[in-house]
Design goal:
This is Lipoprotein. This protein has about 160 residues and is mainly β. An eight-stranded antiparallel barrel has the order 1-2-3-4-5-6-7-8. The protein is about 10% helix and about 40% strand. The chain has helices at about 1-15, 60; strands spanning about 65-70, 75-85, 90-95, 105-115, 115-120, 130-135, 140-145, 150-155. The longest helix is centred in the N-terminal third of the chain and has 15 residues, at about 1-15.
Length: about 160
């Protein structure tokens, strides 16, 4: 009798369950497909650069403007420092091209200049980016994303 009750309970549970949806196939590119070429770092719209005020120290003001270059000599990067305040806080727009399996993108952000380094807040894609002003007036960029670190040099436009 006990086994009969268990059988009916199992049948009742099976009848109440929704049918499972069939698995959908996922298209996978063959390993022999060509690599994605480096893509350009393009901005959706032209950024507005506000020139630093007279109260902004020269060591901060030098970061203002548009900067372009390459990460790992393959992916284009573009930094637009849109505003710089007297305490070293900045607003920026940053764009990048293809980095390994990361698609090109663009993000607005904020950061702070400490010494000769501009550090940005973490971007929505998880990227951490910093820029060090070099003696020759270029920016050494370090971008960390998805467990990898990319470096490059940006020049002012």
């Amino acid at each position: 009798m006990r086994n009969l009750i268990l059988v009916f309970a199992a049948l009742a549970l099976a009848a109440c369950q929704s049918p499972q949806e069939p698995l959908q196939s996922v298209a996978v590119e063959p390993a022999s497909s060509p690599a994605v070429p480096p893509g350009p770092a393009t901005m959706v719209q032209s950024p507005t650069i506000t020139p630093p005020g007279k109260d902004v120290p020269a060591k901060y003001a030098v970061f203002s403007g548009s900067w372009v270059g390459r990460l790992e000599s393959t992916s284009e990067g573009r930094l637009d420092v849109q505003s710089v305040s007297s305490n070293g806080k900045v607003t920026v727009n940053y764009a990048w091209g293809v980095l390994d399996d990361n698609n090109p993108g663009e993000a607005a952000g904020a950061g702070k200049i400490v010494g000769n380094t501009l550090r940005l807040g973490r971007f929505p894609n998880g990227a951490d980016v910093s820029f060090q002003m070099l003696p020759d007036g270029t920016l050494a960029e370090t971008l960390s994303l998805a467990g990898k670190t990319y470096t490059g040099v940006l020049t002012k436009q």
